Amino acid sequence: MAASVAPIGLIVNPRAGTDVRRAVAAAATVTVEVKANAVRRVVLGARESGANRFVVHRDPHDIVRRATETIRGLDLVWVDEPMRFSEEDTVSAVAAMRSMGCAVVVVLGGDGTNRAAARAWSDLPVIPVSTGTNNAFPIFVEPTVAGSAAGHLATGLCSPDDTATSSKVVRLVVHDPDDPGGSHPDLALVDVVAVDDPYVGSFELFDPHTLRLAVLTRADPVLVGFAGVGGFVDPVSVADDAGLLLRFGPPVECPTVVRAPTAPGHFDDLGLAEVRRLELGEEVDVDGPVLLAFDGERKRRLHAGARATLAVRRDGPRVVDVAAVMAGAVAHGAYRR
């Protein structure tokens, strides 16, 4: 293999597609075997494109090892970080992939997995392959093709500068007068939702009565979740230089009531007191006490007296256009013999 071929980062979330929402909604389960098969296809696709060096991380189920143990000629560089069995494993692994010069990172997971990756590498060149519950950010692409596209980026046949677009994110800064530690920045790829909920770690469905506010980077009626809710009233595409603000209230008191799927197979009636497009960079303040959920997962308690400032910006991960990469490879004669 030529020395100029860069490594490919490979992230697979062993917990994606397995949480309690399978019991309380109708989400499908994504098994370890399915994930291992997807990893194998990514690797085989990349190898056919001329790339065989991968930076990978360990997980409790040895998914990458299972997927690759019978494939010869691979150079697997394992991230040497202790497992914490949380999203911090993804954060530390992607940080290592950046330092090792990965041309692109293929992420197998949902919105939460990709959010963790973006925390480590703000302008991450990523091919997000959908395997989670919340899949507004990942794309539905055959893993073989995703791997082939990653391989073309690793060999330099195509460049992320020409085939990837910076995504919108919700940037968040928390101001807490009782915490002298700083402003605590954070981000979401699809939505930040403020709820009146006592349980930070809950994966239960959102109770419509607890919803207060949502800031969305996209709103699309073909999606499930709050991005889908927004799409039912004012669609905002990933290409639009705008976000969307939703303020919730009791349905009997709101001018707009929408019935939408807030989780796979689960519909609710949601009262909307306000629906408004946001310009990029326009700030929205949220006062505590509320609980903040990022991309469908409850993450941070905002105490009374604290305030969070939210803004949609286009400075997130660079999502690779797989079709554009493959078209470029074909134009270069990559598949002609």
Explain the overall architecture:
This protein has helices at 21-24, 32-48, 63-68, 88-99, 111-120, 143-155, 160-163, 226-231, 322-331, and strands at 8-12, 53-56, 75-78, 104-109, 125-130, 164-166, 169-175, 185-188, 191-195, 211-216, 242-249, 256-263, 266-279, 283-287, 290-294, 297-302, 307-313, 318-320. With 337 residues, the protein is α/β, with parallel strands linked by helices. It folds into two domains: 8-167 and 317-331, Rossmann fold (3-Layer(aba) Sandwich), CATH 3.40.50; 169-313, Tumour Suppressor Smad4. The radius of gyration is 20 Å and the shape is globular. The two termini are 19 Å apart. The mean pLDDT is 93.
Keywords:
single chain, 337 residues, alpha/beta, Rossmann fold, Tumour Suppressor Smad4, 2 domains, seven-stranded mixed beta sheet, seven-stranded antiparallel beta sheet, 9 helices, 31% strand, globular
> Per DSSP, what share of the residues sits in E-state strands of 2 or more residues?
25-35%
CATH architecture of the largest domain: 3-Layer(aba) Sandwich
Q: Shape, please? A: globular
Strand order of the largest sheet: 3-2-1-4-5-18-6
Highest-level CATH class of the largest domain? Alpha Beta
Q: How many domains make up the 3D coordinates?
A: 2
Helix content: 10-25%
Helix/strand structural class: alpha/beta
User: What is the CA-atom radius of gyration, in angstroms?
Assistant: 20 Å
The major sheet is characterized as:
7 strands, mixed
CATH domain fold name of the largest domain: Rossmann fold
